[in-house]
Amino acid sequence: MTPLQIIFLLASAVVLASGLYVVTARNLVHAALSLIVTLFGVAILFAILEAGFLAVVQVVLYIGAIAILIIFAIMLTRRVMQDAGPQTNRQWWLGALIALALFAGLGVVLSPVFPISASGALAAVPEQSVELLGKSFVDPNQYVIPFEVASVLLLVAMIGAIMVAGEQK
Question: Using CA atoms, how far apart are residues 131 and 136, in angstroms rounded to an integer?
Answer without folding.
Answer: 9
